[in-house]
User: Fold this.
Amino acid sequence: MIRLDAEAVDSLLVEAMHGNLHLHVVDGGHDRESAYDAFEAALDLPDWFGRNLDALYDCLLDIVDRHEGPWTLLWLPAAGSEAADDAGLLGVLADLEMESEGLTVAVG
Assistant:
């Protein structure tokens, strides 16, 4: 998992716009609950999403399993927010990346 500054985020978005990168963007999150809202909305998580770290991991793993080829998950939590430094959320994303071939996780 990599942390990106604003310029690097912009570069990723440009690459995706030009069709050079398969990118899913999750925009938002001030705290864990609003981060769950952002992931749920951006990735159309299923109704059974239980709004906890284990359920988030399971839902994200289902998304990983549906992808063929490399892709990037970019999470943009609110700058300076609780969510941006939430060890539980960051741990889920790091674990997901370690367990998933072809996935790169970036946090902006």
Remarks:
- The first strand starts at residue 2 and ends at 3.
- Strands lie at 2-3, 23-27, 71-76, 103-107.
- Residues 2-107 form a domain with the Barnase; Chain D fold (CATH 3.30.370.10).
